[in-house]
Amino acid sequence: MLQSKKVKKTKLIFYVDPMSYGNLGIYDFNLINNMKSNKIFFFGNINYDYKKFSNKITTSFLFSYSNKSNNFKKLMSYLSSMISLTKAVLVLKPKTIHIQWIKFWFVDLLFLLLLKNRNINVVYTAHNLLPHNSKKFDFIKFKIYYNLIDKIIVHSNETKSEFKTNFNLNKNIHVIEHGILDINISTNDILSTKTKTRISDKLKLKNKVVFSVLGYQDYYKGCDIVRDMWSQQSFFSENDNFQLIIWGKNKGIDYSILSDLMNVNIRDEYISNEEFVSIVQLSSVILMPYRDISQSGLLLTAISEGVPVIVSKAGGLSEVIKYGKVGEVMNNLSPTDLMFTIQKFINNSNNRVYNNSEFSKVKKEFSWDKILVKTESLYSQM
Questions:
Q1: What was the pLDDT predicted at 23?
Q2: Which residues are paired to 267 by β-bridges?
Q3: 114 and 129 share a domain?
Q4: CA 319, CA 155: separation in Å to the nearest integer?
Q5: Nearest CA-CA partner of 245 in 290, 274, 206, 285
Q6: 197 and 175 in one domain?
Q7: C-alpha–C-alpha distance, residues 296 and 366, integer Å
C-alpha cells in the first residue's frame, strides 16, 4: 500500500512593527518580503516609506501614534491600534507572532499576556537590550517582558552574552544578523537633484578627508568623544585638508567649543534620506565611538555604500569588521584612542586597505538571503 507524503502545513505568522519607518522599514521589507515557507501578515506604521511589499504579504498599516502631537494622544492612538491588532489575533488565530519593537510598555505587556493565555508563540527581536539612556526601572520592565517571550533574536554574539549576563535568561536566544541597509534612494536620484554636488560645493569637500558623525547626537553615541578629540588636537582642528561634518538632531551634546572652527560643519536638525545618503557617500570615514548599542543602521548603511567606519567595541559593531577590513576598531572610549585610531585609518586608507573586495566579504556575510533562512528556520521550531 502506498504511503502518502506528509504535507508541510503553512504557518500563519503575524509580524508586528509599530516603528516600521526609516531604517526599521527597510529592515522589515528585506526580512519578510521574500519568505516562502510561511504566510505573513504585516502590521506596520502608517509612515512606512520603503518599497511596496509583494502581493504574498498581507499588509495593514494600523499604527499612527507617531503622527500625534503629544504623549497622551500617542498613547491613545497606540492603544486603539493594539485593540485592532488583538481583534485580528482573535479572528485569524496566528501560530506565531513576531514583534519587532515595543513602544508603550504597559500596553505591550497586556497584549503579550493575552498571547500567552491563548498559547500563541512569541518571537521578539531585541534591536537593543534596553532603550537608549535607560533608567533603573527600564531594566525591571524589560526583564518582566523578556521572561514572557518564547524566543529572542539578537544581532550579534556580543549582545547575546550581554543578554545572558544582564537578564540571566535560560531560554533560547538566537543570533540572527542585521542585514545591510540599502536606503531607497538611487545614485541617479541624488545626481538628478544635485544634492550631493550642492553639499560638496557648499562645504568645499573636494580633495578633503571627510569625517562624519550622523544621526541623533547623543551621549550613548560618544559624540562628546569626537568633540573633545577634535577640539583638543590642533592636528585636526587646524588642518585645512580635514572636514568634520556633524549632522543630525542634537540630544544634549554641547558643541559650542567647535562652533568657531573653520573645518567643522554642524547641523542640528533631521536630515532627509537624500541628504543622508549624499553625506555618507561624500564621507571618507564614519565615526562611531558608541558607548552603548547592539547594532547600528548607520554602520550597515555605510557598508552598503562602501564607506569605511571607525567603531567602538559596543554591541556588534566590531563583529562586522571581523569579516572584512572595512574600518578600524577603537580599543578604548577616549579622545586619545579615537585620535590614534583615526591616524591608523589614514595610514591604511593611503595603502588602499579598505577596498571593494573587503566590503564584498562583509556584504556576503550579512546578506538578507542568509538572514531570511535563519529566520524561517526559527519559525519552523515553534
A1: 84
A2: 247
A3: yes
A4: 10
A5: 285
A6: no
A7: 13
Cell matching residue 96: 506565531
CATH number at residue 294: 3.40.50.2000
Shared domain for 213 and 156, answered yes or no, is no
Quick check: is 5 in a domain? no
Report residue 26 as a C-alpha cell: 527597510
CA distance 269 to 217: 10
Number of domains in the chain: 2
The contacts found for 63-68 with CB under 8 angstroms, 24 or more apart, are 63/18, 63/19, 63/20, 65/18, 65/103, 66/19, 66/21
For the stretch 331-342, pLDDT in tens is: 999 999 999 999
Backbone angles phi, psi at 10, to 5 degrees: -70, 130
What is the distance in angstroms between the CA of the first residue and the CA of the last residue of the chain?
33
Is residue 314's pLDDT more than 70?
Answer: yes
Q: Give me the pLDDT at residue 293, please.
A: 82
Average pLDDT, the chain: 90
Cell 502608517, located at residue:
46
Report which of 267, 263, 266 is spatially closest to residue 242, judged by C-alpha positions. 263
- Residue 338: which domain range? 187-365
Q: Model-level pTM?
A: 0.85
CA atoms within 13 A on the CB side of 115: 28
Dist CA 155 CA 168 (whole Å): 18
